[in-house]
């Protein structure tokens, strides 16, 4: 990411510069795709499941449940994967369970995968919350700390040991959060026996969404040849009409291999090619990747096919991996966010991965519905509040031109002990994993390393300086931010961010019921932050709870009228400031979502403009009108795009 001065000079420098994306982790994490040389077998569906309800939650390890079929060591129930387990049964103890749960599934691996020694078989978990250990046929193959991001293990030799046996996959998942996890939490034991039952403990969390747990994203087996494309990194730019795709391919399994890299347009025509593991492809008459509503052809993707051939004394290995590539640039000035050198204004939403019954489990029907609603709304962007969303969702964003602020799970860093070395080390690894996974998505335009940390605490300065520097070293092509709700004068991390992202809840958490304070306080907020830091600002959250169907005029809190009036007061100020240095507005929240039980939550957070079932509240129509108007007003919307006539 660079601040544009003379773009032509910068582009020449870009061509000469070294690769900006550095990945410190061993191995890539390419999304598993089928190809001529790769097969994928999904393991979604029903798994055997048992929660370890023993007092120390450790019976599963003491009795080595992974060694035999789970059904042989105790009762099991059927559990869908992917899904959170919390809302699947009628059992409140499972809904609120803290500790280890065990999943198991037997699978028949295709005979060729076993007999062909030249094939690698990999077990991949899209995400599981929070700590996972995986065994195959009783042998541990991997463990992973953190939800929201994928992990995998090669299991080829294990499944070849006894080809007649099915492959038994056991995954133990623990949702306990500590001061050093992301997000952080604490376990509190209540030892007063006059008030609490024996062994009673609670999980304290410092974030406002239900701590859903389980296997949240697809589990699958996939193959690659023994010599394979392990990772691809692309960085893009353009000069006049020529697109520039700098790429680097990492190969594993052989010291040398022949590569053919072909970039194809949407019709499958080759537009550039090369046979070196790294280089710059030039695309004549480039079709840039544009955000939704900024261009008549948003989300244009080329396909980069990497074809590898490696010849050993005994065999020839061939691997093909095809990566979607969008060619675009992102730059930040003191007052603007530029996509392809044109000012981009974020008119979007904050979301959650959250829905009835499945909790945070990936659900295609829900994903497609949400995209339809986003486009109906005229939203051009969202933030993955407060953790990385499924790769499948980012792929939709790439295709539809929905711009993403990609947030890591650094939410609720409120306790000073969560600023220590162990927390920071883990946070750096999570950023490594996030950038490794999402670096090639054109839709991802900015990294957010945290949401509302206690950034006024003294250790926050070192913490955020290190974290942001690290993230920029991982990827210098994108700006980095974190989301603050702290006081502009005391915020310790703001000097290090590229874009200031501020959350505020005037006339809700502050001065509840007093809508008249919004113009004054919001104006002061913007002037203060801009005055001190001279960086563009996104209103990264604002909103009000509204119970659908609750009405009162003049408006009162929790009614649809109050939500409308509050949003409109914010919008008036945005309209003044967006002509200056405010570069975006993201409503809190796209839809109602589940939270922990609390006296200020009536079965969840109701700040959605859609209900949890994705039906519009009155505010959805206010926002829709505004977002389409904003898209039209910027003048970049070509005449083909009709302002929806119902507005
Ligand atoms: C913000 C948090 C968000 C909450 C929201 C709220 O970032 O996670 O859900 O407040 O209270 O401060 O509705």
From TrEMBL:
Cleavable signal peptide: 1-24
EC number assigned by the record: 3.2.1.31
MF annotations from Gene Ontology: beta-glucuronidase activity; carbohydrate binding
Glycoside hydrolase family 2 catalytic domain mapped to chain residues: 330-631
Keywords, in A-Z order: Glycoprotein, Glycosidase, Hydrolase, Lysosome, Signal
Annotated localization: Lysosome
First-tier enzyme category under EC: hydrolase
Keyword Transport: no
GO cellular component: extracellular space; lysosome
GO biological process: carbohydrate metabolic process; glucuronoside catabolic process
InterPro entries with a match to the protein in the record: Beta-gal/glucu_dom_sf, Galactose-bd-like_sf, GH, Glyco_hydro_2, Glyco_hydro_2_AS, Glyco_hydro_2_cat, Glyco_hydro_2_CS, Glyco_hydro_2_N
Regulation: Inhibited by L-aspartic acid.
SUPFAM superfamilies (UniProt xref): (Trans)glycosidases (SSF51445), beta-Galactosidase/glucuronidase domain (SSF49303), Galactose-binding domain-like (SSF49785)
Organism domain of life: Eukaryota
Family matches, as Gene3D superfamilies: Galactose-binding domain-like, Glycosidases, Immunoglobulins
Catalytic activity: a beta-D-glucuronoside + H2O = D-glucuronate + an alcohol
Ranges for domain Glycosyl hydrolases family 2 sugar binding: 41-225
Residue ranges occupied by any Glycoside hydrolase family 2 immunoglobulin-like beta-sandwich domain in the UniProt entry: 227-328
Pfam families with a match to the protein in the record: Glyco_hydro_2, Glyco_hydro_2_C, Glyco_hydro_2_N
Database matches in NCBIfam families: PRK10150.1
Function text: Plays an important role in the degradation of dermatan and keratan sulfates.
Family named by the database record: Belongs to the glycosyl hydrolase 2 family.
Subunit structure: Homotetramer.
Name of the protein this chain belongs to: Beta-glucuronidase
